[in-house]
Specification:
Order of helices and strands of chain B: HHHHHHHHHHHHHHHHH
Structural class of chain B: mainly alpha
Mean pLDDT of chain B: 81
CATH architecture of the largest domain in chain A: 3-Layer(aba) Sandwich
Number of domains of chain B: 2
Largest interface: A-B, 34 and 30 residues
Oligomer: heterodimer
Shape of chain A: globular
Number of strands of chain B: 0
Helix content of chain A: 40-55%
Strand order of the largest sheet of chain A: 6-7-8-3-9-10
Largest sheet of chain A: 6 strands, mixed
Largest sheet of chain B: none
Distance between the termini of chain B: 46 Å
Radius of gyration of chain A: 19 Å
Helix content of chain B: over 70%
Strand content of chain B: under 5%
């Protein structure tokens, strides 16, 4: 009965996860009995419209929030039930974060921000980690920017510093929350390519929350969320396929709203069918 | 009458919304600061007046004009220092409040409000805060005086001392406090002018370190005051040979040079803050704390100078009186009459506790500065918590931030206090023959640093640091990473 995440080849997983806010009449369910795993070495996108529960899922998986019911693991460590300090240290050592904006501490320069997880841990990077950081700085083109403070960097540069920081500790999992949301499309593509490279060439497990089909099309796997449930789990898709699925799901919801509960399953099937058709037309 | 009529017609909600800003963080503290300095002024003026009445009722002492003059002079000086520190605190608070309101001001600018009208609005709020505080202080101070007079009359069994508790002069400190609060709010709201409508649209990254505005005029005034104060101070020390000329000249020099130092806070304090910050070491918490104090160097410097003034004045009195005692002991052949020793100690204790009121006001300002700093840094704290800053580390950062300012202020204040105290003693007693063989030559009065008063100063500063960190620490540890990141 004891199946560990490692056995399953997972970097993180959640089991029967439910998160609700408020109580009684005003109760809102953000996540409804979700079970899913993030595969090791893969770049996974978590897609869904606003309010679908994708951010809540990420926050619980990353140890930033506690679920109402259910369990969550990072690697083989069960994080549900851990105390605040244990969770903090776990995030520091085993999770990397890239947020949409306000990623960097304004008073520290780029290097200070990259080294922050080590500094918070009260240690210097080992020779191996040092080499890794040097490599990251090099490949992210940050060499000449290390002594700049965040306000002296462009949005893309700030995001690259955040990526360097997230990858520096070689964490079990990197969580990226709308990492391209504040960037122009070209810079956004660069950032996505960097994440893709980290996963492909260095086997870094990455989970990215986004509502942008183009961003999600860079991922190896796309999870779709709607109304707090996983509605689809697809291998690599093109941006067109993702848009098509989302449009279908959106129309399905509209049908549900208009025609009652009966329309729901039909809409779900229709959406899945659309994706299948699209996949057949455009081979990955 | 018209205004009243308009007010009554106004819907209730609108009227309460117009005063909603009073509940904003920082306003309560500004009212407290104004009330403290106003009450202090009222109590001191009353105490001086009462002592005067007591003395004139004494058949043996009668009217002593010199004593009355000295008392009113000291009152003016002490109240002046308290009001000055209060003004610094208020200006700081308002500049912090304005920084927190940037988005709101930018939105109003976007809609079409002029920067000047926005700044005027902030200053008007300062006037309201000042008036409320001054009136509260006036009432509290008068009540304290009434209680004190009753107590003293009963304790000392005074008879025939006629002293009117409520009199017009008490309005003076209250009025001065209300006006300086207004002026301080105006001075602190300068940043309103730099807010652009575009900032309402967000997305701009906050500059890590606000550059100190190059206010050449003020810096020149500060340096000139320091220079013209330094001359007489040195002269007074030399002229100590011809009493009482020396101490008078030195006193004038001391006032000028100290005002120069206070005005030049942004020139003096940042290097000292940087030095202290470096001494904290290179751990993440130490660096975060050290950088935070320098994020708004102007604010931190002004805050520190408030504490510096308190520490300097207490130390100055302690050192000067101890040195005087040392000299008198020596010239008296090794013994100081007990009565004289008690008199000097009593005078010192009274002066130091009166100066301590200014230190309390500076303390309120420090609490306020740290609290607003935490409130305005919620997102950053949320980010740090997400990245792995533990709650214990959050506590350390806030405590170190408080310690950063108090340690820098304490060190500066101790050095200045010992220097000024020695200058005072030297200019006063340079001619007292220590060695009977060579009379009337310039004697060197060694600065005597009393142990206990300085221990009390250091302990009080340490206590201030701990107390100042309580509220901001509670706020900072309550920041949940998710909540802060969602903003």
């Amino acid at each position: 009965m004891h199946i560990s995440s490692t056995d399953l080849g997972l970097a993180a997983r959640v089991q029967q996860l439910t998160k609700s806010y408020g109580s009684g009449e005003g109760e809102v369910t953000a996540l409804d009995d979700v079970s899913v795993g993030i595969r090791r070495g893969e770049f996974t996108a978590i897609m869904g419209p606003s309010g679908s529960g994708k951010s809540t899922l990420m926050h619980i998986m990353a140890g930033l929030d506690a679920p109402t019911r259910g369990r969550a693991w990072i690697g083989d460590t069960e994080i549900t039930g851990l105390g605040d300090l244990e969770l903090t240290i776990l995030r520091r050592r085993r999770v990397g974060f890239v947020f949409q904006s306000f990623n960097l501490v304004p008073t520290l320069d780029a290097l200070g921000n990259i080294l922050l997880p080590f500094d918070l841990d009260g240690r210097r990077p080992s020779a191996l980690e040092r080499a890794r950081i040097d490599g990251l700085v090099e490949s992210l083109g940050l060499g000449s920017r290390l002594r700049h403070r965040p306000h002296q960097l462009s949005g893309g540069q700030q995001q690259r510093v955040a990526i360097a920081r997230a990858l520096a500790t070689a964490p079990d999992l990197v969580f990226a929350d709308e990492p391209t949301g504040n960037l122009d499309s070209r810079t956004g593509r660069e950032v996505l390519t960097l994440l893709q490279t980290a996963s492909r060439e260095h086997g870094q497990s990455i989970a990215m929350v986004t509502h942008d089909p183009i961003a999600a099309s860079h991922a190896d796997r796309v999870l779709f969320l709607g109304d707090g449930r996983i509605t689809a789990d697809k291998p690599r898709l093109t941006a067109e396929e993702i848009s098509a699925y989302m449009l279908a799901a959106e129309r399905g919801t509209a049908v549900t709203a208009a025609g009652g509960a009966a329309g729901r399953d039909a809409a779900g099937r229709a959406a899945t069918a659309t994706v299948a058709t699209a996949s057949a037309e455009v081979p990955a | 009458m018209t205004a009243v009529a308009v007010d009554t017609r106004m819907p209730r909600a609108e009227a309460s919304a117009r005063l909603a800003w009073l509940r904003e963080r920082g306003m309560g503290a500004s009212i407290l600061v104004a009330a403290l300095s106003s009450a202090f002024g009222v109590v001191l003026i009353s105490a001086t007046g009462f002592i005067g009445a007591m003395l004139s009722a004494d058949p043996y002492v009668g009217d002593s004009e010199t004593l009355a003059f000295v008392l009113s002079f000291l009152t003016t000086l002490l109240v002046g220092v308290a009001v000055y520190v209060a003004a610094i605190v208020t200006a700081n608070t308002f500049s912090t409040v304005v920084a927190g309101r940037t988005r709101q001001i930018a939105l109003l600018r976007l809609i079409g409000a002029s920067a000047r009208s926005q700044r005027g609005e902030v200053a008007r709020q300062g006037l309201v805060v000042g008036v409320i505080g001054a009136v509260l202080g006036l009432v509290a101070g008068t009540a304290l005086t009434a209680a004190g007079v009753q107590l003293m009359t009963a304790l000392l069994g005074l008879r025939g001392v006629s002293y009117a508790i409520v009199h017009g002069a008490l309005l003076l400190p209250a009025a001065i406090v209300a006006l300086t609060t207004w002026a301080a709010a105006w001075a602190g709201s300068r940043r309103v002018l730099t807010v652009t409508p575009l900032q309402a649209l967000g997305g701009s990254v906050e500059a890590s370190h606000q550059t100190i505005a190059h206010r050449t005029a003020r810096n020149v005034v500060a340096i000139v005051l320091f220079a013209i104060g330094g001359g007489p101070l040195a002269l007074g020390i030399v002229a100590g040979l011809y009493p009482p000329l020396g101490v008078v000249i030195a006193f004038a020099g001391g006032i000028f040079s100290f005002t120069g130092l206070a005005l030049g806070a942004t020139l003096i304090m940042p290097p000292i803050l940087r030095l202290v910050g470096r001494a904290f070491g290179s751990s993440a918490t130490a660096r975060l704390a050290a950088e935070n104090a320098l994020r708004y160097p102007e604010r931190s410097s002004r805050m520190a100078i408030g504490v510096v003034m308190g520490v300097t004045l207490v130390t100055m009195f302690a050192v000067a009186l101890e040195s005087v005692k040392a000299v008198l002991t020596m010239s008296g052949g090794g013994v100081l009459p007990t009565e004289m020793s008690t008199l000097i100690d009593t005078f010192g204790a009274i002066m130091m506790s009166l100066v301590a009121v200014s230190a309390v006001i500076a303390g309120v300002g420090l609490v306020n500065l740290l609290t607003l700093g935490v409130v305005q840094r919620r997102r950053e704290l949320g980010l740090l918590r997400a990245l792995g800053l533990s709650n214990r580390q959050v506590r350390r950062v806030v405590l170190l931030e408080a310690a950063h300012i108090t340690i820098a202020a304490l060190a500066t204040g101790l050095v200045l206090g010992i220097a000024y105290g020695w200058a005072g003693a030297q200019s006063l007693l340079g001619s007292v023959p220590i060695d009977p063989v060579t009379p009337r030559t310039m004697n060197f009065v060694a600065p005597a640093v009393p142990f206990w008063p300085l221990v009390i100063v250091v302990a009080a500063t340490a206590l201030l640091t701990l107390v100042a960190a309580v509220v901001p620490t509670r706020l900072a540890t309550r920041v949940a990473p998710v909540e802060a990141l969602a903003e």
